Amino acid sequence: MAYSDFTLDQVRTTFGLRVSEHSDLFASAAELTPSPWLVTYLNGSVPLARAMNTEKARSELIIAPVLTELRLRFPELCSLFSGAELNADPERGLRGYCDFNIAKSAVQHLLEAPLLLVAGAKNSDLATGYGQCAAGMMGAQYFNETRGGLPGAIFGAVTTGENWAFAKLEATSLVLDMQAYPINRVGKILGILRDMIGG
Amino acid sequence: MAYSDFTLESVTTTFGLSIGDAADLFASVEELAPSNWLARTLEAAHLARAMNTEKARSELMIAPFFTELWLRFRDQCSFFSGIDFTVDAARGLKGFCDFILSRSPTPYVLSAPVAMITESKNSDLPSGYGQCVAGMIGAKIFNEQRGSVTPVVFGAVSTGDLWAFLSLNGTSLTLDRRLYDIHESGKILGVLYSMLA
What we know:
The complex is a heterodimer. By secondary structure, chain A is α/β, with parallel strands linked by helices. Chain A has one domain (3-197): Alpha-Beta Complex (tt1808, chain A). Chain A has 5 helices and 7 strands. Chain B is an alpha/beta fold. Chain B is built from 6 helices and 7 strands; from the N terminus they run H-E-H-H-H-E-E-E-H-E-E-E-H. In chain B, a hairpin with a 3-residue loop joins strand 5 and strand 6. In chain B, helix 1 runs parallel beside helix 5 (129-145) and helix 2 (36-42) runs antiparallel to helix 4 (54-73). Classes of the chains: A alpha/beta, B alpha/beta. Chain A binds chain B through residues 37, 40-41, 44-45, 48, 51-52, 54-57, 59-61, 64, 68, 71-72, 80-84, 108-109, and chain B through 37, 40-41, 44, 46-48, 50-56, 58-60, 63, 67, 70-71, 78, 80-83, 106-108.
């Protein structure tokens, strides 16, 4: 058992989570204007990733650039990890690789608590990504607790690059945001990410 | 059996390739100055080096070169990342390819592959040669099946920091002894662009 094996229902029953929905979880997040670099990047790469239509291309051409922008703009507030192994609690299946993580730490050479965001890439159909994402969020929560990180909310994102959906885990309460943000609202997506890292 | 299962030894034996090397295969190729966009993108390469995962290196160090080519020369080329490239399953020419550079401008459907690019595992360049050459043979056969003559198919193996190039002319495989460092981005870009000629 690893993160990628979990469905949302399995995460709920295995870890006793209460799952609820919010109509607009990040309504108050102010937009963050993307840099000219990111705008140039996405103008070319979004249609290209859509054409190739693979999860790998979507990660390389859309998701990684957006998250890299966050790290480049707030290097003192967050670190970015891509494809890192997070073996938080292997016995309970909280193990495996995460597509992307963001930690509240300036250190880029190793994962440090507290982890703030677990993001999962999908080639299509965001809904099927919630189980793996929620399991990753549980792993991040456990990682933070056992590493002495301050207890706080863990965020999750499920994304095709073209479309982003968010979730929030506090203690045993998992809140799914009913909003989904298309990449042409990248300013809002960046604003939400900035709020998560406290920028 | 798939592309990723081949070693350099097994691929040359299976397909009857002769193998040689060259001191500087692309000595005559001119540099192509990176755009401001690529220069800025590669400034983030240190992040991938710190993360030290193949995935991060692919995203922050390798893919940007192909995006740059596409942004600047999209009427001459396209590329494909992570597609299934099954050409001859019975002979092991099947599986996913890290990157394929194509002479065709459409990124929707692969046609006219000219170069196969393999991300090397664990920053170990030679470990990627077998997979890369198998992909090059796949590209050669793919083109032949469609009646297009591509005398030479190119290949590259990259750790992100280092690039090694190869060429396949008929059954003659040449490995370039000269390696390129990511700081020579203009030369790497020039070599990749020259493959489209």
